[in-house]
Amino acid sequence: MQEIDYYEILEVSKDSSGAEIKKSYRKLALKYHPDRNPDNKEAEDRFKLVNEAYQVLSDEEKRSIYDRYGKSGLEGRGMGGFESASMDDIMDIFNSMFGNGFGGGFRKRSDPNQKYSLDFEIELHLEFHEAIFGCTKEIEIAYKIPCDSCKGSGAKDGAMQTCEACKGQGQIIMRQGFMTFAQTCPKCQGKGQIIKEKCEKCKGQGSLMQEEKVTIDIPAGIDSGNRLRIKGHGNKAKNGQRGDLYITFLVKEDEHFIRQGNDVYIEVPVFFTQAILGESITIPSLSGKLTLELKKGTKDKEQFIFKNEGVTDVHNGRKGRLIAQIKMVLPDKLNEEQKELLGKLQESFGVESTPQKSIFEACFDRVKGWFE
Hints:
Elements: H1 6-9, H2 18-32, H3 41-57, H4 60-69, H5 87-98, E1 120-126, H6 128-133, E2 135-146, E3 160-162, E4 171-176, E5 179-184, E6 193-195, E7 207-218, E8 227-230, E9 245-251, E10 257-260, E11 263-271, H7 272-277, E12 279-285, E13 288-294, E14 303-306, E15 322-329, H8 336-348, H9 355-370
Parallel strand pairs: 1-9, 11-15
Antiparallel strand pairs: 2-7, 3-6, 4-5, 8-9, 10-11, 12-13, 14-15
Helix pairs in contact: 2-3, 2-5
């Protein structure tokens, strides 16, 4: 049986430096990690081989023996697991895969004993016009401050004890075959210590809630899903530092205007005679009134575009379009005089008033032939 080549597995040459081997190992470990390839036996096996190869080639002594005698020369020299891989390598992989914060700009807790994140997020509903033109709002928020009784620890009199599960390390290391997994200790959440007795004032939370009124300036053009950062109005840390408040906006719909990005649509009802004859009509816009020139023979759902009459882009200040879409309106009822007039009008158009006859004549003959 052909022996596996550790250099080929790590996709490096035999004269590669330790840094090059380490770089390739991290890339391949991420690529074949079981969490990224669930229920993929081939990827799992490849992940094991990558770790086995790195365990040897990252150790100068083992690499030297391997280069001279091959894999057989390493038998009985402690093969297996991640023993030769540093914890930094392992954590780099986990940080690359899962990230080291909340994402979206949220701040990581720099103090491992900080029981809550300094940044937090709320939702704010806006009226349509408030989002279009911008506004100033005063809002009430509730943010966390460290409990003064336990100084933010959540423990009565600040008394803590070493976590028995992780022995104060904050992490639990688990080995399975060639794989080693490091995870945050579930009992102490990575602190290495646990509360001996909960603080009565904060019930072990380490924080109390405090209310505050904040005035915010909302720029013109905000849309649903946009997020605004208010610096220094987040939760308070034990050192007095405050995080940031993030506001996600939800904009209410308007009765007439429909927004799509920076463009605004409005449906314009037009009586069929206006569409046939053409007419100048006045329509509403975000800035007031506009004149819409209906050309003769305007069609249903036809669109008329007005540039720079839409929403201001919240990032670059450019304006979108107002798009007026025609909705043809037909009479609901006709009196006898109207019927007579319409009848005469139809007759005056002659053949043109019955377009279906010329269009379907050949079709009727064709259908008739199917049954002969």
